[in-house]
Amino acid sequence: MTRNEVRLIRARLVVLAAVLITLWSYAAYVTSQDAVDLLRVRALADTLGQPIDRLILSLQAERRLTTETIAGAASTAAPLVGIRESTDRAAAEVREFTEGHDLRLFSAREVRDRSGELVRRLNGLATIRSQVDTGRLDQAKAVDGYDQVIDVAFRVYGPEWGAYESALAVDTRAVIALARARELLAREDTLVSAALTGGRLGVDERRRLTEIVSNQRYARTEAAAGLPVDGQGEHQRLAVGPEFAGLLALEDRLLRADTANALTGITIQSWRAAADTALDALQTLVTTTARSSAERATPSAAGIAARTGTVVGLGLIVVLVLLLSWAGTVRRLIDELTRPDVDTPVLIRDAPPTPDGANQQLFLRLTRRNQVLLRDQLSLLDGMQRRERSAEETSELFQLDHLTTRIRRNVEKLIALAGAAPARRWRRPVPLLDVARGAVAEVPDYHRVLIAPHWPWSLAGPAVTDVIHLLSELIENALAFSAADTTVRVTSEHRPQGCAVLVIDDGPGLDASALAEANHLLGNPPPDGPPTGPAGLYAAAVLAGRCGAHVSLRPSQRGGTAAIVLLPARLVTVRDTDRGPVTAPPGTPYPPARNGAHLPDPSGDGELPTRVRHTGPTGPEHGRTALDTVEMPVARVARRHP
User: Fold this and answer.
1) pTM
2) Is the per-residue pLDDT at 602 higher than 70?
3) Are residues 492 and 452 in contact, defined by beta-carbon separation less than 8 angstroms?
4) What's 426-579's CATH class?
5) Where are the domains of the chain?
6) Could you tell me the CA-to-CA distances from 463 to 491, 581, 593 in Å, in that order?
């Protein structure tokens, strides 16, 4: 065996070792996320969640009593002193958390920062109280001061309370949403109580009451839809039961009456009884739902720990054994090669380099083979998803499916940038909405993308693959340059020369110089490859040139950036919107995705299914959307995201 052969074997073993370590690391990461998520949520609930809940309840009561005091209620002095002491005790618990250190919260630095901001707000509460006691603060400013502190308290519940999808994380977010709905009801209670105490409900107060009641009812309904089944049933019972009957009757009476006599026949006692009953019922529902979610998650903790230990521990042992075995093999080969009784063979001169054209063809052949393998992998995943009945395993398969879809995008983009045509092609026109959804399916953080519901166009089949990848580049660019808590909106507009697809983000935007450079690159991509930096815009420019589209950037109305993809009339046709959305034809082997994209089966070799799986609440009801309403690509069931 020659030295070159030994080097080749050693290089191959190094590559195999790297692949093996990568696969083990990914498997360990995926399996450990359940344990980390459970630990984080339980630790946050025990150390910070309960003090925050008590603080919010105390602040809500103190806000109401403060406004009644300003309105002239002399009987609120003693209760106000008591509730202020309760607020201070809850605030002291929050301060203790910000000053302590809990190893279970090693990944919750953002939570600690937000709780620190809450403490700074609480330190300013003494100023509000002093101004109220000395008569230097009116009712509106006092309410606004308390509202700001409560809003900061709710912001402590960030994504760290369930960043990795699990049933416990989904339940936690639903409980927090229900608590926010209760805060709207508490604000309504504060407004009406102050009006009844002062004997007057002005025009501004009436308008504010109408807004709060509408938002409160909507938020409560939406939050209840995300609760577990037993929580939804309990909320439905409360909504139609006596707990809310009195409140709903008084609300309707206040909203129907004239401004001049809106409070006629309503006493502070009757309102207090109705509001307290509804507030107590909602708080009980929040508490019981949170407790039952924790109880359901507890039995699975042992299984999560066992699975994590098996994958991490045994997997690591297997990896180490294989690495040591390969290292021993290489060492023996080197020893044999360096023995003195072994003749050193004559080395053959290296072969001449392959011409550039041959290299290009080899590159394309290998990439097309990878594309066929990806097609087979996606087909296999589809069959596994159909056979799998476990929700948890199905969710993991969808994760793998999404990763494979993103890899396929890279493969097809390489083929396109090399000047060839990907194997995945369509002969017939495809609904432009399905093309947009297919593009969203190929990007990370796809749950942050909102797609407008009305797309009355179809796209010519030969341009489908390029337009999908073009939109994917622009959407991924918008996601990368905007904050993680913002959304990217995708919509369409009619243009005289065809139609335009708009990708709009809420990022910091571009200055005039950067915007001009980006538009120059999009309109004039350099023929010798991408410049340093904006490789995504270069790829978008090349893809646009292939299909005949035109891409430009402009500032958006909300301060971010809007990417406009102009599709000429030769690529798009107006379709019959009365027939409803186009779906996959009967007998297609791919299951429909919730609010996702299934393009009809492409014709020709290399067809690959496109699917996407989303999380969270669905979009607004049909028939109730405005012109700028968007579909929210998220489902109501618990899903995982890598």
Assistant:
1) 0.45
2) no
3) yes
4) alpha beta
5) 167-297, 426-579
6) 19, 20, 23
